[in-house]
């Protein structure tokens, strides 16, 4: 278990780096509404989606080793259930639900990363819940069971935006399992939309595993091949790609009447046992893979935040230049007006220098005031609008990476400039851009280095490390004495010292 503990501790450090280096700047300039580390601080999640009755809940029960979720042939469960760990009841008393909480509590609890789903409203809150379970598999990851995807239902019937919820959860998840069953191999309408649009927009391919479940129900090996072929064909149609994603084959022995009675199991099943093992391994590997995602998360957000600030800086500089030019023009015009006033006063026969200077000065000030309140404001408004219309020219978009990052932040930049609350100076903006760029270079680099060191460590290394080391307390004490973090220990190979 030491390995998992170490991984959790690294995750905590990455979240801390984000909290210190990126979040304050990001919140200050409206780059995001909630702290950037909100989604990464919580433990890794495995999201399970798929057709109704494809065996999602049975699969989870099988994995946890107890009947935690309701199962049944018809669409059974139309709720999203977050299943997480709790050890208030010892495992020796059997795996069981130790606590349940409703959706409202879950959406409003800052300890959980679900506040972004609050906007889905009451109907969603009543279809969202938390179960705490004392299964050892949940120590370092959480599982989310979801309502089955249907053909006949619309967003209005559900009362909340189902695809948006799936997208939000997929974005937070370290792994997404998409389950199909042998009866409906890739033909359900909601599944089509989820795979084609929602998942591709919210997560990366390497985080998705397609699973053909309930394979024990195929009449023969030939039948299984036919179903598998159908699913491959449907998936390539849905994704619009020729290369078919990897599909794992699975079944839940306890949910199958034949298998649980131990009679007439299809003879091909034992040959496919390795598939179920691989799937289990992929799930238990989620915390480790999650670290790679977090490294990418830090890199992406520090880069985008830098790009965002660059755009604000470009806008501010252009605006300042425009303002200086126009103020100068206004001043020249007012000065001219003041001179004309002096000339007029002279022509009226007054030659007292004090009166002449007073008339010129008063006229200049009055004209400047009129300029500033009437013309300058209008000109600035027009300039602002022009810049908003030509937003894409604000920063250079040389390569595809810049274009992608601009695509991701463009709307936010626009919203910010439309409001233009200007709670910061040009100097502060430059300073913050500099520190974000440095965080991008250094923090992201440190994390990558530490992770590549971690990847080199084998299970034996961990076992050896654990054998030599140290209780958790002793390790923590030694770390503290040396003033090192887990990241530094990995990065500098200090682990040999322990
Ligand atoms: N033979 C067999 N039956 C299964 C398997 N997995 C699930 N079932 C059965 O299929 C039915 C549906 O299973 P569930 O686990 O409720 O499916 P679900 O995807 O959670 O369904 P919804 O929550 O309604 O979307 C139940 O009657 C299960 O007993 C399996 O691997 N083999
Ligand atoms: Mg279910």
TrEMBL record:
The record ties this protein, via Pfam families, to: Dynamin_N
Tell me which residues make up the Dynamin-type G domain.
Answer: 40-285
Q: Which GO terms describe its molecular function?
A: GTP binding
Stretches that traverse the bilayer: 327-348, 354-375
InterPro entries membership: Dynamin, Dynamin_N, G_DYNAMIN_dom, P-loop_NTPase, TRAFAC_Dynamin-like_GTPase
Q: Does the keyword Phosphoprotein apply?
A: no
Which keywords does this chain's UniProt record carry?
Membrane, Transmembrane, Transmembrane helix
Say if the entry is tagged with keyword Lyase: no
Q: Which domain of life does the UniProt lineage start with?
A: Bacteria
Entry's PANTHER family? SARCALUMENIN, TRANSMEMBRANE GTPASE FZO
Q: Could you identify this protein by its name?
A: Dynamin family protein
Native source organism of the sequence: Desulfonema ishimotonii
């Amino acid at each position: 278990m030491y390995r998992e503990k170490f991984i959790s501790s690294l995750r905590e450090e990455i979240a801390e780096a984000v909290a210190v280096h990126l979040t304050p700047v990001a919140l200050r300039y409206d780059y995001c509404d909630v702290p950037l580390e909100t989604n990464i601080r919580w433990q890794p999640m495995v999201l399970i989606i798929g057709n109704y009755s494809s065996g999602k809940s049975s699969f989870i029960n099988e994995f946890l080793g107890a009947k935690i979720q309701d199962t049944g042939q018809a669409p059974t469960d139309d709720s999203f259930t977050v299943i997480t760990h709790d050890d208030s009841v010892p495992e020796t008393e059997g795996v069981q639900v130790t606590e349940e909480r409703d959706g409202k509590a879950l959406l409003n609890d800052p300890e959980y990363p679900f506040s972004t789903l609050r906007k889905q409203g009451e109907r969603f809150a009543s279809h969202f819940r938390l179960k705490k379970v004392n299964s050892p598999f949940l120590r370092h990851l959480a599982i989310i069971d979801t309502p089955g995807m249907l053909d006949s239902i619309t967003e209005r019937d559900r009362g909340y935006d189902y695809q948006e919820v799936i997208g939000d959860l997929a974005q937070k998840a370290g792994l997404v399992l998409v389950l199909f069953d042998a009866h409906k191999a890739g033909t359900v309408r909601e599944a089509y939309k989820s795979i084609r649009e929602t998942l591709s927009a919210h997560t990366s391919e390497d985080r998705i595993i397609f699973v053909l479940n309930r394979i024990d129900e195929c009449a023969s090996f030939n039948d299984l091949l036919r179903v598998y072929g159908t699913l491959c064909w449907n998936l390539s149609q849905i994704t619009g790609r020729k290369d078919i994603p990897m599909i794992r084959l699975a079944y839940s022995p306890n949910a199958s009447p034949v298998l649980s009675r131990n009679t007439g199991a299809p003879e091909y099943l034992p040959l496919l046992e390795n598939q179920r093992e691989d799937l289990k391994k992929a799930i238990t590997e989620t915390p480790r893979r999650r670290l790679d995602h977090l490294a990418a998360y830090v890199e992406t957000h520090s880069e985008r935040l830098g790009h965002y600030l660059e755009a604000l800086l470009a806008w501010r500089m252009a605006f300042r230049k425009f303002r200086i030019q126009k103020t100068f023009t206004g001043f020249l015009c007012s000065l001219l007006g003041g001179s004309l006033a002096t000339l007029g006063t002279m022509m009226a026969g007054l030659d007292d220098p004090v009166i002449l200077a007073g008339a010129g000065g008063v006229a200049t000030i009055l004209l400047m005031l009129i300029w500033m309140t009437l013309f300058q404001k209008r000109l600035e408004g027009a300039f602002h609008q022009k810049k908003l219309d030509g937003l894409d020219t604000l920063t250079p978009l040389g390569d595809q990476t810049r274009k992608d990052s601009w695509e991701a932040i463009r709307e936010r930049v626009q919203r910010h400039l439309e409001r233009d609350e200007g709670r910061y100076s040009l100097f502060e903006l430059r300073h913050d851009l500099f520190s974000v760029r440095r965080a991008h270079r250094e923090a992201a680099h440190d994390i990558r280095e530490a992770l590549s060191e971690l990847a080199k460590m084998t299970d034996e290394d961990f076992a050896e490390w654990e054998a030599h080391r140290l209780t958790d307390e002793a390790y923590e004490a030694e770390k503290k004495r040396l003033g090192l973090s887990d990241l530094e220990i990995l990065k500098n190979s200090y682990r040999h010292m322990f």
